[in-house]
Amino acid sequence: MVKKYIENNRGKVFYWINEEFAGTKDKGAIMFTHGLTADHTLFDKQTEYLQDEMCVITWDMPLHGENRPYKGFSFKNAAADMNQILETEGIEKAVMAGQSAGGYCAQAFALFYPEKTAGFISIDSTPFGLKYYKKSELFWTDHYDAIARWYPYEFYCKLSAKSACTTEEARLSFYQALVRLGKKGMLEAAKALYRDFTKYPEVDFKCPVLLFLGEKDKVGYVKKYNEMWEKETGYPLVVIPGAGHNSNFDGYEFFNRKVIEFMTTQSMRAD
């Protein structure tokens, strides 16, 4: 995986790619976006396994990892950054995979660039569209940064890693990402992301969709929202055995196999 960056009026945006497959239509391309307070290392188990099979892109969502400082965050702007990365690499279409809040970036991309979205993979994320959410549930996301501010940051990091993951390896990886982000970065990112995600309509996907959910995901109402999402749309929901909220890391062997199956269908290829 080679580290590269694009640049625009919002800042420098770093990403990682296995260049040898960039722009090839026969292998397909997939772009992974991590969730709130994580970084691109959330997908280390995917890059290790998938980079010899297809074009793989990971990146730090704006306001996370190395993509700081960043001006004017919105999921629409993040989608524009994703499009700029694809254009830079000569990639016509890609499967967009997002974990938790990273699923909002992927949905925003599908919303604004449907012709470039070969598929959508949700990983313990939730849908755009206010019909899925109660006002009482949105209260906690609207005030997340205000509540999190009162926690000692070391405690917050340990609690978040324990809550999001079921395996020690996944917990350590997420904990380290949280420490790198720092409390100021965490509060800035949480405020920006949670204030923006309710502004977008539900996406009418024109591509194949696959929903993943960790069997032991107990973060917020993620389990309930995914069950509603499946019932409302008919999108297939795959439960990853024994995994928590960071299910692609906890259950990476199962997850990687399912992604390969999804990517090897003809519909994943660029036209």
UniProtKB/TrEMBL annotation:
Keyword Repressor found: no
Keywords linked to the UniProt accession: Hydrolase
Domain (AB hydrolase-1) ranges: 29-251
SUPFAM superfamilies from the UniProt entry: alpha/beta-Hydrolases
Record keyword Hydrolase present: yes
Cellular component terms (Gene Ontology): membrane
Gene Ontology MF, one: hydrolase activity
PANTHER family according to UniProt: AB HYDROLASE SUPERFAMILY PROTEIN YCLE, MONOACYLGLYCEROL LIPASE
Protein name (record): Pimeloyl-ACP methyl ester carboxylesterase
Annotated source species: Kineothrix alysoides
